[in-house]
Write a structure and sequence with these properties.
Layout: H1 2-25, H2 35-48, E1 53-60, E2 66-72, E3 81-87, H3 95-113, H4 115-123, E4 124-129, H5 134-140, H6 198-208, E5 214-222, E6 226-229, H7 241-259, E7 264-267, H8 268-271, H9 279-285, E8 290-296, H10 311-333, H11 336-357
Parallel strand pairs: 3-4, 3-5, 5-8, 6-7
Antiparallel strand pairs: 1-2, 2-4, 6-8
Helix pairs in contact: 3-4, 3-10, 4-11, 7-10
The structure holds 2-acetamido-2-deoxy-beta-D-glucopyranose (5 copies) and zinc ion.
Zinc ion is lined by residues 90, 93, 221.
Protein name: Carboxypeptidase O
Signal peptide: 1-19
Pfam family, one: Peptidase_M14
Length: 360
């Protein structure tokens, strides 16, 4: 009896350790998650990566839900550069929030094993918003009839009985000029004035208050397999258009190498349609040099209702594309020589560390 129970205690102890690990590991990144699960996931990430990940609330939606991001980076006590990524500005594009969560998981894993990522975390913070349009996203989860909702949930002005403003037509970037509607029932209704919507205000305020820190602004949508560069207005060209295209085309190459998917790179008017008031254009006009819209899978076969068995490949390829742009931005800003020496030391430390850390 004694021996049995001693052994049992050991087994139980092992099981409880395992259960703790499993809790963390078992979040299914390759399913779509409703908002409450994503919120819980953020809390869990913050808990599991205390030294490097923190939730920041930076605004409220029309229905007064909190808009939150994960800030990921090492505390150095110094002013750091930054990378912006937001997902779920359009409610029905469910692959986008799935990607932001996958992206967070990947950079947190890479941080432990990849000296380059470790170095990036020292010099930059990643600000990742898994769901920007929280009200719209929740509405799209209500039932089959609301699944394809795109806008936020602000009631229309005056006599208009429809709901919702297209948040990606609401930013203060040639607002209301092209590719928008003033009809509040339209899916491209641009709102009553630039940044009239609380969700657009939240991004404008947060990013605008530290715009010199941001090297990169990536906003994630679906679908179409596109990398869009500024501007959406056909009569304006970004002053670093050549650089944006060169980096974008290389990112598309990186994407193609993962699962063979072709992404088209260009301005919105060149490869999609003209528009105004997008967050990407706003960010570029604020002086952030590398601003891109990702339109993830697919090209229309399933459209916004991308099957869950495509979440993994869609995220894997988009991750390589995003990391290409981010790495370019990083290398351009930080001194390569110093970084390489530091990386060599880190490789040694990590090579020793990894063997003992893979026990899970
Ligand atoms: C919105 O929510 C915040 C907390 O999340 C609360 O402090 C505030 O009073 C709320 N505002 C309204 C108008 O309900
Ligand atoms: C909703 O859509 C799903 C999948 O398309 C379908 O299986 C289900 O029957 C639909 N439910 C209703 C109430 O229409
Ligand atoms: C609202 O409706 C009233 C009565 O139908 C009409 O007189 C008014 O012009 C409308 N206002 C707007 C802004 O459409
Ligand atoms: C772009 O400029 C041309 C020439 O000035 C003008 O005709 C056209 O309306 C402009 N396009 C937009 C969308 O403003
Ligand atoms: C991608 O584009 C290349 C060159 O245009 C073409 O040869 C290839 O078949 C395309 N791949 C897919 C999966 O469409
Ligand atoms: Zn979109």
């Amino acid at each position: 009896m004694k021996m049995c129970c001693g052994a049992l205690a050991v087994v139980l102890l092992l099981l409880s350790v395992d259960a703790a690990t499993i809790d963390r590991v078992e979040y299914d990144y390759f399913k779509y998650h409703p908002m409450d699960e994503i919120t819980k996931w953020m809390t869990q990430i913050e808990k599991d990566y205390k030294d490097i990940a923190r939730i920041e609330d930076y605004g409220h939606t029309y229905e007064n839900r909190t808009i939150s991001l994960l800030k990921i980076g090492l505390e150095t006590g110094q002013q750091k550069k930054a990378i912006w990524m937001d997902c779920g500005i359009h409610a029905r594009e469910w692959i986008a929030p799935a990607f932001c969560q996958f992206f967070v998981r990947e950079i947190l894993q890479a941080y432990k094993t990849d000296p380059k990522m470790n170095e990036m975390m020292k010099n930059m913070d990643f600000y990742v918003t898994p769901v920007l349009n929280v009200d719209g996203y929740m509405f799209s989860w209500q039932n089959n009839e609301t699944r394809l909702w795109r806008k936020n949930r602000t009631p229309g002005p005056r006599n208009c009985t429809c709901f919702g403003t297209d948040l990606n037509r609401n930013f203060d970037a040639n607002w209301g000029t092209v590719g928008v509607s003033y009809d509040c029932c339209s899916n491209t209704y641009c709102g009553t004035s630039p940044a009239s919507e609380p969700e657009a205000q939240a991004v404008t305020k947060f990013v605008g208050s530290r715009k010199d820190d941001f090297l990169c602004f990536l906003t994630i949508h679906s679908y179409g397999q596109l990398l869009l560069v500024p501007y959406g207005h056909p009569n304006f060209t970004a002053d670093n258009y050549d650089e944006l295209m060169e980096v974008g085309l290389a990112a598309a190459d990186a994407i193609r190498q993962v699962h063979g998917k072709n992404y088209t790179v260009g301005t919105s008017p060149a490869v999609l349609y003209s528009n105004s008031g997008s967050s990407r254009d706003w960010a570029r006009m604020q002086g952030i040099p590398l601003t891109y819209t990702f339109e993830l899978r697919d090209k229309g076969m399933y459209g916004f209702v991308l099957p869950e068995d495509q979440i993994q490949p869609a995220c894997e390829e988009a991750y390589e594309g995003a990391m290409h742009i981010i790495t370019y931005a990083y290398n351009k800003t930080f001194n390569g020589a110093v970084a390489t020496a530091a990386a060599a030391v880190w490789s040694l430390i990590l090579a020793v560390g990894v063997t003992s850390a893979t026990l899970m």
